[in-house]
Amino acid sequence: MIDVHCDETDDIMARFLELLNALVMIEGIGVRTVASHTCSFGSADDAYAFRLMGLLKASGINFISCPTENAYLQGRQDTYPKRRGLTRVKELIEAGINVCFAQDSINDPWYPLGNGNMMNILDNGIHLTQVASYEELETAFDLITYNGAKAMMVEDQYGLEAGKPANFIVLDESSVFEAIRKRVGVLASVRNGDFLFRRREPQYEVPLNI
Ligand SMILES: [Zn+2]
User: Fold this and answer.
1) Fewer CB under 10 Å: which end of the chain, C or N?
2) What is the CATH superfamily name and number for domain 165-210?
């Protein structure tokens, strides 16, 4: 399996994604390959991007976008308009190409605020890529769950089906939409069937007497 952190620049002429895609297509290993970042693809000319999209679909290559890192690092030479720095996530989804959100940096020099909170990554990602219609939000969790499992080729061990490892977090909400909207906290984390931690639902004291 291959994960290439590729075209992490604002260079509108960058062509390393095209080269990577061609090489893995020749070898027939696109589905085992991830192109991470590909920020410049978000700045590429539309006609070029449209043509390349068909080749990306044909190879089966996967994409990982790192919303907080890309927004933090890219567009630094821009004045205004100032680019967001992310790849074409919405267009990749609409083309049927597997794309997921991730966190690249935890306590490292490239991005100082990473903490591995995937709900925060999702929140940033859907805003910066405008993947936030009601329909898109219904499946937004896929971007930090199933799509990542597909990119890592661990789908046989990932999901809610009986017999699979019990690795999951419990969010303090009953719907995906409200969990995202309310930025809810995590009530529990389970690893291989054992609780890593449990937390009581937050209690609020409201002393106002009006
Ligand atoms: Zn990276």
Assistant:
1) C
2) Urease, subunit C, domain 1 (2.30.40.10)
Choice among 8, 94, 201, 205 that is catalytic: 8
Mean pLDDT of 19-29: 98
Is 136 considered catalytic here? no
Give the pLDDT mean for 29-36.
98
The residue ranges of every structural domain in the chain are 2-158, 165-210
Please tell me the distance between residue 208's alpha carbon and the centre of ligand 1 in angstroms: 48
Cα 4 to middle of ligand 1, angstroms: 8
Higher pLDDT, 107 or 48: 48
CATH class as words, domain 2-158:
alpha beta
Whether the bond into 109 is cis, omega within 30 of 0: no
Contact (Cβ atoms closer than 8 angstroms) between residue 147 and residue 139? no
| Cβ-proximal residues to 208 (8 Å cutoff; 6+ apart), any chain | none
Q: Rounded to the nearest whole angstrom, what is the distance from the C-alpha of residue 37 to the centroid of ligand 1? A: 7
Distance in angstroms (rounded) separating the CA atoms of residues 102 and 147: 11
Return the axis-axis angle of helices 46-59 and 16-27, rounded to nearest 10°.
20
| Among 167, 200, 201, CA closest to 182 | 201
